[in-house]
Amino acid sequence: METDFLVIGSGIAGLTYAIKTARYFPEKKITIITKAQADETNTKYAQGGIAGVWDDQKDSFDKHIEDTLIAGDGLCNKEVVEIVVTEGPERIKEIIEYGARFDKTESGEYSLGKEGGHSENRILHHKDVTGSEIERAMLEELRACNNVELINHCFVVDLITQHHLGFLVTKSTPDIQCYGVYVLNLHNNQIEKIIAPITLIATGGNGQAYRTTTNPKIATGDGVAMVYRAKGRIENMEFIQFHPTALYEPGVSPSFLITEAVRGDGGILRNKQGEAFMEKYDERKDLAPRDIVARAIDSEMKRAGTEHVYLDCTHMDKEKFIHHFPNIYERCKKIGIDVMQHWIPVAPAAHYSCGGVKTDTMARTSIQHLYACGECASTGLHGANRLASNSLLEAMVFAHRAYIDTIEKHNKICESPETQQHWQSQVPDWDAKGTTYPKEMILITQSLKELQQIMSDYVGIVRTDVRLERASRRLDLLHEETEELYKNTKVSPQLCELRNLITVGYLIVKGAEFRKESRGLHFNTDHLQKSALVQNIIL
Q: Does 137 score more than 70 pLDDT?
């Protein structure tokens, strides 16, 4: 297949880019591929909302910038923070124009929530399903674009670069180029190639590397792993954000998220003894940044030998709670918890990757003709810890910037009419000779369980040098076994996801080993002090 623009992923980042590009180039073809249904994305599961300076009487860009820099613990790129905060409101207005319905007060003003780390109320939300509402509105808008093809159930296996044309490509190769992707078409089980002069990766996060996560099953770090294999630059993977309050339900995956907005509205964290413990850890109490709250909960659980703490909402207004958090209310009710009478059992769960594919201010990666945005990218906004509800904002701002850069790049790339035919003729078909179907799926499923246990036990909220060393050795063995399986086995989504998650796990561990300090989401008890030299870990 040939296309003018290839978008991998159908969350808020991919859809923003696709809609804008389709409108600017009405005669060009935009292809979006996703490995599940179009709306099965990390965006869909974002509960809390989207941060933006909306009330300029009480709030300001400077305040939002300062809150973001404080949360990022010295590793944010200030230029990027200023870009996202100042350009963000215009991007929010665009999705409102697409039809996204954010909650309003009785007076008709937008109801602005407050979450951990924010100094002002600036979170726009749609009840407790903001991401799902944004996804709905954007897919509706996409359907009006006649030049967009959306392909479901199509799994990207690898990026196509000069490596596939027979050239030696290393991380020091200055002009690595992306020509498209190899994909596994799940409708016919065949590996096909899609050739494109411009590709955007918006593949989401990697929460499935951990045993307990709020991420959907599709969040397997595919984009990060593919770019790393293609010798692209990856940055700051050690900073994995654990959401402090996932509903504690043993054996249930993914974990149901109890949005931070509940604490913003007055929810109080309590330990086994019923004590409101957050005041012991931070003066901001329950609205401290997520890294602090997650570590505090982890400490209370270990001290008491429990597997969860509690979120107390019994003092909150019932009518307001049900209006603002209807899905949380119903989910708790379904398992026998009346939030107006019972405390909600909660525990931290892997939630968001602050690192990823390194990009510049226009979402360009180190590989030419390849952009990245959304959770798979490391733009410099989040630093060592993401400020709540900044992720949807970042995705829209950088998708827009990728689109702006695309206008110029596309014209240059396509100056020669032979360019695309040249790529098409040079890229070889996928070679599956000598491979067979796996005789035992347990070789894949058991390795996945091992990976998730290794990452959860050794590379979680609190780390040590010994734990990281053990994780590294065990991941090396899993990598060796899985690569052997990959060479001799026909490609399947399960095998590809396992391979990608092992790569992501390796990158998280290596980043954590290189960072000889405790900063933001990376907390190592062998290196409790912060280093005077603040730097990004680039792999």
A: yes
First to last CA, the chain: 32
Classify each residue of 359-388 as buried b or exposed e, where b means 16 or more C-beta atoms within 10 Å of its C-beta.
Answer: beeebbbbbebbbbbbbbbbbbbbbbbbbb
Helix axes of 391-413 and 78-98: crossing angle, nearest 10 degrees: 90
Q: Which residues are catalytic?
A: 290
**CA-based max dimension of the chain:** 72
Give the number of residues written for the chain.
539
* 430 pLDDT higher than 90: no
∠ CA 447-453-458, rounded to 5°: 125
Kindly list the distances between the CA atom of residue 384 and the CA atoms of 210, 339, 353, 372, in Å, as whole numbers in the listed order.
19, 33, 10, 19
Encode pLDDT of 364-407 as tens digits: 999 999 999 999 999 999 999 999 899 999 999 999 999 999 99
User: Would you tell me the crossing angle of helices 130-143 and 391-413 to the nearest 10 degrees?
Assistant: 30
- CA-to-CA distance for 37 and 9, rounded, in angstroms? 10
Please report where in the chains the tokens 């918890």 appear, as a residue: 337
Q: Where are the beta strands (DSSP E) in 248-373?
A: 268-270, 309-312, 344-353, 356-358, 370-372
DSSP state of 110: B
Q: How far apart are CA 77 and CA 125, in angstroms?
A: 27
Rounded-to-integer distance, Cα 204 and Cα 226, Å: 13
Taken in order of first residue, the domains within the chain and their CATH numbers are 5-47+125-238+353-425 (3.50.50.60), 258-348 (3.90.700.10)
498: nearest Cα among 517, 519, 475: 475
Question: Which whole-number Å values give the CA distances from 344 to 209, 273, 301, 306, in the listed order?
Answer: 26, 14, 15, 14
pLDDT level of residue 309 (50, 70, 90 thresholds) = very high
Please choose, from the candidates 35, 39, 36, 37, the residue with its C-alpha nearest in 3D space to the C-alpha of residue 15.
39
Among 193, 223, 238, smallest CA distance to 372 is for: 223
What is each CA distance from 269 to 36, 279, 293, 324, 349, in whole angstroms?
36, 10, 9, 19, 16
Of 147, 193, 200, 180, give the one whose Cα is nearest residue 419: 180
Q: How far is CA 420 from CA 166, 178, 318, in A?
A: 18, 12, 60
Q: What is the rounded distance in angstroms from the CA atom of residue 117 to the CA atom of residue 99?
A: 29
Burial class of residue 10, CB neighbours in 10 A (0-12, 13-18, 19+): buried
Instruction: Give me the percent of the chain exceeding a pLDDT of 70.
Output: 95
* pLDDT value of residue 20: 97
pLDDT tens, residue by residue, 48-94: 789 999 988 899 999 999 999 999 999 999 999 999 999 999 999 99
pLDDT of residue 423: 58
Assess contact for 324 and 128: CB atoms under 8 A. Answer: yes
Buried b (16+ CB within 10 A) or exposed e, 427-439: beebeeeeeeebe
Q: Where are the alpha helices (DSSP H) in 377-464?
A: 391-413, 419-426, 442-458
* Residue 190 DSSP class: E
Note if the pTM is more than 0.90. Answer: yes
